[in-house]
Amino acid sequence: MIEETHTKSLFTGIVEEMGTIKQLGFDQDNSFTMKIGAKIMLEDIHLGDSISVNGTCLTVTEYDTVLTEFSVGLAPETLRKTSLSELEIGSLVNLERALSPSTRMGGHFVQGHVDGTGEIVEMAPEGDSLWVKVKVGRDLLKYIVPKGFIAIDGTSLTVVDVFDEEVCFNFMMVAYTQQNVVIPLKKVGQKVNLEVDILGKYVERLLSSGFVESIKSS
């Protein structure tokens, strides 16, 4: 879990808009702050709101509805465990506000807790769709299954195939998705933030704790 203060925030993995990094770096209090230009995010924004930035749940610390921008703070652990440290002024980022009771559930439950990063190793078009292959560590690959959900830079996507020997998985994006998220703008060799489906981790925990065996024997 990257941001321990966001245990109650959930997202769908359906990107609402792409924002633009306007400023980033350490401020006078030695806190790493990121200022992002956006429009939809500012429609009902409040201090303390949770917003997913490339799949990382971050807290709004300032906002300006006239300049249409908001700021978020990043903890050192967040910078170490995500690809956000690679962003530059002018970079585009995927943005999504936390779920509200009236939100339509269009993707899957995403916590905004980045499990790790993967490296894009291949991007290949097929018609107007795009195949993307990502290399990950084996500690994450065990949670990734064909036809399963995964959040990549905060985008809810479906895994197509898993390649155990290559320690990779791939997915395909249709034209509409390509036009509305940042992944197609990245290049081979760049990192993406990954959040695996939480159900896989729950199952592993139950099996390792012996809970299932205790039920069978009871």
Automatic annotation (TrEMBL):
<feature type="domain" description="Lumazine-binding">
    <location>
        <begin position="10"/>
        <end position="108"/>
    </location>
</feature>
<dbReference type="InterPro" id="IPR023366">
    <property type="entry name" value="ATP_synth_asu-like_sf"/>
</dbReference>
<feature type="repeat" description="Lumazine-binding">
    <location>
        <begin position="10"/>
        <end position="108"/>
    </location>
</feature>
<dbReference type="InterPro" id="IPR001783">
    <property type="entry name" value="Lumazine-bd"/>
</dbReference>
<feature type="repeat" description="Lumazine-binding">
    <location>
        <begin position="109"/>
        <end position="207"/>
    </location>
</feature>
<dbReference type="Pfam" id="PF00677">
    <property type="entry name" value="Lum_binding"/>
</dbReference>
<dbReference type="InterPro" id="IPR017938">
    <property type="entry name" value="Riboflavin_synthase-like_b-brl"/>
</dbReference>
<keyword id="KW-0677">Repeat</keyword>
<protein>
    <recommendedName>
        <fullName>Lumazine-binding domain-containing protein</fullName>
    </recommendedName>
</protein>
<dbReference type="InterPro" id="IPR026017">
    <property type="entry name" value="Lumazine-bd_dom"/>
</dbReference>
<feature type="domain" description="Lumazine-binding">
    <location>
        <begin position="109"/>
        <end position="207"/>
    </location>
</feature>
